Amino acid sequence: MLLRITIKTADVLAYLHVIDPSIIHRDVKTTNILLDDAFRVKVVDFGLSRLFPLDATHVSIAPQGTPGYIDPEYYQCFQLTSKSDIYSFGVVLVELISSKPVIDLRREKSEVHLANMAIAKIQNHELVNPEIWRTSDEVARMRIAMVAELAFRCLQSDDDRRPTVREVLEGLVAIENAACDSCNKAEDAANWLRDDSSLMHNVVMSSSDTVIGKWENRTTTSVASQ
After folding, report:
1. What residues does the Protein kinase domain cover (predicted)?
2. For residue range 1-22, what is the model confidence (pLDDT) as tens digits?
């Protein structure tokens, strides 16, 4: 279910980034990803969002956002890009697989920020919630490992090394499809995910209905509370 939610969220961001002018959310975090009773996704709180011309490389603007989710390159250089949302989304991915708070002053100084912890520990299972890992079968563990790999790419300090939102969306869909039949398929998808040349193909972009679709009731739930 969480993987499906991340796919839908990436789908929303893909739509926002492809329209002209595109929209950079600037505050992508779990508490801004709401679900209705049918677990349909709605990305909310566009108070910090900025229009972004498709032909622009960046927008110079003072950094704003939620601590722990802010792109460090944007924070240091005051240059907002579409990859700033990708960094924040990478933090969301790590938050979901680890079940750890984004900021925790009780952790070691170098790991107060979850993103820093992830960069250091994402290559092993220490980052993953032990309960999730213990109760997962082999295929599910393969999928978790692939999500961790994708998150690692999103969290690169140099935004040129981060994937685009279209690449993220396609990667998540591939991960979801990987576990349909066997671990062999999962391994094939893992190899495919590492092949940057394949990531720009066969992406199905979202429609505006994903972002502003009608709600059948007033009940919403934050992903962070799931």
Report:
1. 1-175
2. 889 999 999 999 999 999 999 9
Q: Please confirm, yes or no, whether 209 is among the known catalytic residues.
A: no
What DSSP assignment string belongs to 83-111? Answer: HHHHHHHHHHHHHHHH---SB-TTS-GGG
Q: Which helix (H) or strand (E) holds 177?
A: helix 165-178
Taking a C-beta distance cutoff of 8 angstroms, is the pair 155, 125 a contact?
A: no
In angstroms, rounded to a whole number, what is the distance separating the alpha carbons of residues 117 and 94? 10
For residue range 14-68, list pLDDT tens digits in order: 999 999 999 999 999 999 999 988 888 999 999 999 999 888 888 999 999 999 9
Residue at 189: amino acid letter: A
Residues 71/84, Cβ–Cβ less than 8 Å: yes
Which residue in 11, 20, 27, 104 is the catalytic one? 27
Continuous segment of H or E residues that includes residue 23: strand 22-24
CA distance 133 to 148: 13
Nearest to 202 by CA among 176, 170, 180: 170
CATH of range 2-225; options 1.10.150.120, 1.10.510.10, 3.40.50.11590, 3.40.640.10: 1.10.510.10
For the chain, how big is the Rg over CA atoms in Å?
Answer: 17
Cα distances (Å, whole numbers) of residue 209 to 42, 145, 213: 10, 31, 4
Identify the residue whose tokens are 């679900």: 35
Are the CB atoms for 10 and 195 separated by under 8 Å?
no
